[in-house]
Design goal:
Helices cover about 35% and strands about 20% of the residues. With about 325 residues, it is α/β, with parallel strands linked by helices. The strands form 3 sheets. The chain has a 7-stranded mixed beta sheet with strand order 5-4-6-7-8-12-13, with helices on both faces. Strand 1, helix 2 and strand 2 form a beta-alpha-beta unit. Helix 3 runs parallel beside helix 4 and helix 5 packs across helix 7.
């Protein structure tokens, strides 16, 4: 229990002394970093979070979690495969939002795309101002006012959004996303494809409320569409069914599936494990990367979609 008032190194040592052959956890990012600084990790660790990109993992520490960066990179690959090249990013003004935007842009640029506009919202009623400015609708309106001042009110004019964007990358929670999508439509961007992170959808079916998300594509955990897993059924029969916990249940289930496969993932190039959080593969720095499922909101409901092109894990 890493919430105890003990150093994570001491807790690890106690587990090893008790005969543990592998340690799963901790979940806290700071504790993962602290454990990685130990001089020696005699027993392998499957950490449930990630180190900072600049940090090198101990040879006995494996990083596995629900990193927003995985969502962002996958959105970039999907949008690029589907023919888009000029992106706008729209994320919360927070550390998570910054990480999502940075990961998306790095992957997007490496693929050959361009981020034309990067915008962030506070989520306190600023959606319209942020989106109007990002799409340069306000510039269009000012131009109309200038023309009318010259020629009088007889000039008919309809504002336009900028035309150098062909997709939007969105990271937002469900409540914010339900306001953002209609606001995009209000500002003449209803036809711009939106690729989002899993954060826009909790997994709970709410067709009436989620109609405002119609059309958004997002990567998500296969867990939410799995009707056959006996492990999932057992978990839900014995725990809270609140949608808030489902991502963590899926993470725990995949940790259970992963630990006996770590050596295989190390030894077999491009070996994959098909789990509840995605298709899992071992990358550099002992980083377990996830390739999630894709879904689209249709009539207020998340519907699984398949790729137009066979997407494999990045080389």
């Amino acid at each position: 229990d890493s919430s105890q008032n003990k150093a994570i190194g001491d807790l690890y040592a106690e587990a090893v002394a008790a005969g543990a052959e592998l340690v799963i956890g901790p979940l806290d990012k700071g504790q993962v970093a602290a454990l990685n600084q130990q001089e020696e990790l005699p027993v392998p660790v499957l950490a449930l979070n990630y180190l900072d990109p600049a940090d090198t993992a101990s040879r006995s520490l494996f990083q596995f979690g629900l990193a927003i960066e995985d969502d962002a990179r996958q959105a970039a690959r999907r949008a690029f495969v589907e023919g888009h090249r000029q992106a706008m990013t729209l994320v919360p003004r927070s550390s998570r939002g910054e990480r999502a935007a940075a990961a998306f842009e790095a992957e997007w640029v490496e693929l050959g795309g361009e981020v034309v506009q990067a915008s962030a919202f506070r989520g306190r009623g600023d959606f319209s101002d942020v989106i109007q400015s990002a799409l340069q609708v306000d510039v269009s309106k000012r131009r109309a006012w200038d023309i009318r001042n010259i020629f009088g009110n007889r000039v008919e004019f309809e504002p336009r959004r900028r035309q150098d964007i062909d997709m939007i990358f969105l990271d937002a929670n469900p409540a914010d996303a339900r306001q953002i999508k209609p606001t995009l439509a209000f500002h003449y961007a209803s036809k711009l494809p939106v690729y989002a992170t899993r954060n826009i959808h909790s997994g709970k079916v709410d067709r009436k409320t989620d109609r405002d998300l119609n059309g958004i594509r997002f990567s998500t955990l296969p867990w939410f569409f799995d009707q056959d897993s006996p492990e999932k059924a057992e978990i839900l029969n014995n725990t809270s069914t609140s949608s808030a916990y489902h991502s963590l249940y899926a993470l725990g289930l995949d940790a259970y599936r992963l630990y006996p496969r770590l050596k295989q993932l190390q030894q077999v190039v491009r070996a994959r494990l098909y789990g509840s959080t995605g298709t899992l593969g071992l990358m550099d720095n002992h980083y377990i990367q996830r390739e999630q499922s894709w879904a689209q909101i249709r009539s207020g409901r998340a519907v699984p979609i398949t790729s137009l092109v066979d997407e494999s894990m990045p080389k």
